[in-house]
Structures are given as structure tokens and as C-alpha cells.
Design a protein that fits this description.
This protein has eight helices and ten strands. By secondary structure, the protein is of the alpha+beta class.
Length: 260
């Protein structure tokens, strides 16, 4: 539909709002929408700080733009305190969206939206045009699961499961990749680690060797429009068991040594 997408970098405090403002001024454009994954962002696993949440809302308000807050991972916090949703902070129009695919059943493909009723009505019409609406049975399954009180205990079990996986991943990275010049971040929830290779190492070249070793990851440039993430990769702990996480990082180290 002719949208022009402006990429904004992410650091340990999430989306760099000051850099977003600088790039907007440099280009002389008026943004219509800011799209952000505030909690344990894919692919970096980083979380937007409270200060930056407030700054983003102020920036959006100054341009009379809407903020789309996509929060598929917010329920999967393992350490630290929850931060308020952008929609709860006020100051700009916010459309909050999320999914039950990460916390219930991926195959159901059911999500949710919190927004102005007129916005929801327009989104509903657009979805009907795209895929004739989500199946009623899938929606009823999710509704009844929550209505009967199963969600809270289930999410508690998921947090315990994924916390163990993340801890194993963190320990495996430290154990297997020590002394390689490879660095990684320390997310407090979600599914992902953002791994940075030495600048001279291509993640795609490493992937070719890693596949021969029987381990896979997503190269960083798959998530970029303009930024140079050729030496970065996303390491996910969502699917494998803790033991397979250990083995996967060992194989990643073998692939790195072969490439080096």
C-alpha cells in the first residue's frame, strides 16, 4: 500500500527513541505509525525501558501518529518486574495487539486487540477480506480456556519451563563460546538471545557450516532493512529441550572453529 518503512536500532533499553526522532527530522517526514515489540523483542530479546516507553508516546503524539504495541512475549518474563503496557501510560493513541500462539497453542492462530472500537471495526473488516475471519472453534477454545481459569496456571508452567531453557542457553553460551570473541545479550524473558560474532565473520557463512553440524539459527540480516547485521544471529531456546540446547551450542562452537 505504498508504506515507507524506517528502521530504528535497538539496544539494551529497547527501541532507540532518540535515534528514531533524529532520523525522522533528517528525512523530513511525518510518521503515521510507530510499530514496537516492547517486551523481549524478536529478534534481540530486549525490552523497552519505562523511560523510552514514555518518550515513544511523546514522540508519537508530537506527530499525531498511532503506536502499534505488539506484545506476543510479555507474559514470558522470568526475571525483574513487569513494565506497564504503552496503552496504560497514555499520551498517544495506542493499538495493542497480541497472540495466544506463544502461550497456549501455536496451531490455533488466535490473537487479541485492544483499541478504539472504530479501529477494531476497521481491522475486523480488513481481516474478513484477507482470510474470511479466524475459525469460530479456535476462538471458542481459547475463550473457554481463559473463562474456566486455566490460563494463569498454564502460563506459570510455561514460565518455569522457558526460564530453565533460557538459563541453560545462557550457561551453554558462556561455557562453549568463551574466548571466541563472540558476545551475546542477557534478556530477562522471551525466547531469544542476540549473538554478535566478530566483525569479520559472516553469520550466513557460519550458518552454512552450522547446518552441516546439524544446528540452525537465523542470520541477523534476515531482520534488517538497512542496518548491517551480517555478523549477528538470533539464537532461540523455544523449541529444543535443555539437553538439546547444550548440544546445539556445542555444535555451533564446532561450526565456528571450522569457519575460523
Amino acid at each position: 500500500h505504498g508504506a515507507r518503512v524506517l528502521e530504528v536500532p535497538v539496544d539494551a533499553d529497547g527501541l532507540d527513541v532518540a535515534e528514531a526522532s533524529r532520523r525522522i527530522r533528517k528525512l523530513g517526514v511525518r510518521p503515521r505509525m510507530f510499530f514496537v515489540v516492547p517486551n523481549f523483542q524478536n529478534p534481540t530479546g530486549e525490552t523497552l525501558s519505562l523511560e523510552r516507553r514514555e518518550a515513544l508516546l511523546a514522540l508519537a503524539a508530537s506527530h499525531e501518529a498511532v503506536v502499534v504495541e505488539d506484545d506476543p512475549y510479555g507474559a514470558l518474563r522470568f526475571r525483574g518486574e513487569d513494565l506497564p503496557p504503552l496503552a496504560a501510560l497514555g499520551g498517544a493513541e495506542v493499538v495493542s495487539i497480541g497472540t495466544f500462539s506463544k502461550t497456549f497453542l501455536p496451531g490455533l492462530r488466535v490473537g487479541w486487540v485492544i483499541a478504539d472500537p472504530d479501529v477494531i471495526a476497521r481491522m475486523s473488516r480488513a481481516k474478513q477480506t484477507m482470510d474470511s475471519s479466524t475459525g469460530t472453534l479456535a476462538q471458542r477454545i481459547v475463550l473457554e480456556f481463559h473463562r474456566r481459569g486455566g490460563a494463569e496456571a498454564h502460563i506459570g508452567r510455561l514460565r518455569q519451563l522457558y526460564r530453565e531453557k533460557q538459563d541453560r542457553g545462557r550457561a551453554a553460551l558462556a561455557r562453549e563460546l568463551a574466548g571466541t570473541g563472540i558476545a551475546w545479550n542477557d534478556p530477562k524473558g522471551g525466547f531469544y538471545f542476540w549473538v554478535r560474532l566478530p566483525r569479520h565473520v559472516s553469520a550466513r557463512a557460519l550458518l552454512d557450516v552450522a547446518l552441516q553440524e546439524g544446528v540452525a539459527f537465523v542470520p541477523g540480516d534476515a531482520f534488517a532493512i538497512d542496518a548491517d547485521h551480517r555478523s549477528a544471529l538470533r539464537f532461540s531456546i523455544s523449541a529444543p529441550t535443555p539437553d538439546r540446547i547444550d548440544e546445539g551450542v556445542r555444535r555451533l562452537r564446532r561450526a565456528f572453529d571450522r569457519l575460523a
